[in-house]
Amino acid sequence: MIRIELDEASLGATRIAISPLWDAFCSLHLAMPHRHPSRPYEEWVVRAREVLREDDRTHPLRLLIDGPHQFPDFMLPRPVGATAVETELNAVRTTPADVVRAGIAEHYAGLEDHPYVRPYLADPEGACAELADAYAAYWEGAMAAHWPVMRRLVEDEVLIRARTFATEGIDALFTGLESRAKWQPPVLELTKHIDAEYRAGERRLLLVPLVFAEGCRLYSTDDPEVLTVSFQARGAGALRERPAERADSGDRLGLLLGRGRASVLRQLGGPLTTAGIADRLGLAPSTVSEHLSALAEADVVTRHRIGRSVYYQLTDTGRALLALLSGEDVLRAVS
Questions:
Q1: 252 plus 216 within the same structural domain
Q2: CA–CA separation, 183 vs 97, rounded Å?
C-alpha cells in the first residue's frame, strides 16, 4: 500500500494531464507473458507481445520491465500534458548525463554492475537514445493505431475530472477516482504490492488518466515540485475491434428503443461526447448523433458544453429506464 499525505497547498494545486508514454509503459506490464489481460485488452495484447518478441529494438524496454521496480524519472518523464508521444520521447532522448548519473545514484546504489544499470553509467546519452528508440518502436507497432481512440478517452476523462474538481471539490474528485485508490483525508492510499509513505509537502499533485492502467499503478515522487499519480480512465472497452453484442433474447430496452439507440444509452454511465460513444461502439459519429438527438428530445439524456465539446449524460428518466428494463443499477447519479 502506498500512502501519500497531501496538505492544502498540494490539493489546491491539483492538475490533470495526458501522457501517451505513461500509457505505453503500463501497457508493457500488461503484455508480459504471465499476465492475463481482461477482455478490453485481449485483442490488443496479441499484437503487443508479437512486437516485443520480434522487434529487437525493444530490448531496452524488456530490460526495464524485468529490472528493479523503482526507477529514476528520466526513464519515464513526468507528464507535461503532451498529446504527441514524440514530445515525451524527445525528453527521454535528450536527458543530460548529470541527470542520468544522479538518478542512478539515488535509485540503484550498489547495483552499478547490474546489466540493466551499467549502460546508463558507461554512456548516458547513448543509453537514453536507445531507450527512446525502444519506446518509439513499441509505440509504432503496438500503440499508434489505437492512440486516436485512446486520446479521445483520456481527453474526455481530463474534462470530466476537471469539472468535478471545479464544481464539487477535491473529495468528489478522489472519491470517484477508481477502486484501487482510497481517499481518507488527508491521505490518498494506492493499492500496490510495495509499502511506502510520502508527504507531498509543498509539491502539487498531478493526476494522469491512463487507458492501460490495468497494467500497473504508476506514481512518481522524484520531482521536487510535483507528485504524480496515475489512474484508470473509463472506456477501455473501445480497444476491442468489435464490441460484444447483447443477445436479442430478453433485451427489452433494445426491443423498445431499437438496438442501436439502446446501445448508446447503455454507454452513458458518465458524461461522454458523441465521438467518445462512437469509439466505444464502433459506430459512425453521425449515427450516434442521431440517436442522441432522439434520446434528448425524449428527456432521456441531457447535454452540456465544456469548452468546445458537448457532453451527454443520463437524466433521472434515463436512469430509471435502464434500471427498469435492463436491470442495471444506475439510479444513482454519476458525476
A1: no
A2: 38
123 within some domain: yes
Q: What is the dihedral of CA 250, 252, 257, 258, to 10 degrees?
A: 10
**Does 226 reside within a domain?**
yes
For 16, 48, 108, 289, 297, the CA distances from 73, given in Å and listed in that order, are 18, 24, 13, 42, 50
Tens digit of pLDDT for each residue in 284-307?
888 899 999 999 999 999 998 877
Cα separation, 68 vs 81, in Å, equals: 27
Q: Give the sign of the dihedral formed by CA 135, CA 137, CA 141, CA 145.
A: positive
Count of Cβ atoms closer than 10 Å to residue 259 Cβ: 14
Q: Which of 232, 252, 271 is the last residue of a domain?
A: 232
C-alpha cell at 172: 468528489
Is there a contact between 79 and 22 (Cβ–Cβ < 8 Å)? Answer: yes
CATH of the domain at 271: 1.10.10.10
- Looking at the structure, do residues 66 and 161 belong to the same domain, yes or no? yes
- In what helix (H) or strand (E) does residue 92 lie, and over which residues does it extend? helix 85-93
Query: What pLDDT was estimated at residue 212?
Result: 93
Contacts of 10 (CB under 8 A, 6+ apart): 200, 201, 202, 203, 204, 205, 227
- In whole angstroms, give the CA distance from residue 207 to residue 209: 7
**Cα–Cα distance, 259 to 262 (Å, whole number):** 5
- CA dihedral of 290, 291, 295, 297, whole degrees rounded to 10: 20
Residues 6+ apart with CB under 8 A from 154: 18, 23, 209, 210, 211, 233
The C-alpha atoms of residue 210 and residue 40 are separated, in whole angstroms, by 14
DSSP reduced 3-state for 312: strand
| Structural domains counted in the chain | 2
Out of 232, 265, 286, pick the residue that ends a domain. 232
Cell of 28: 508493457
Q: Which residue numbers in the chain have pLDDT < 70?
A: 67-69, 176, 178-179, 240-250, 269, 326-335
Q: CA-to-CA distance for 179 and 29, rounded, in angstroms? A: 19
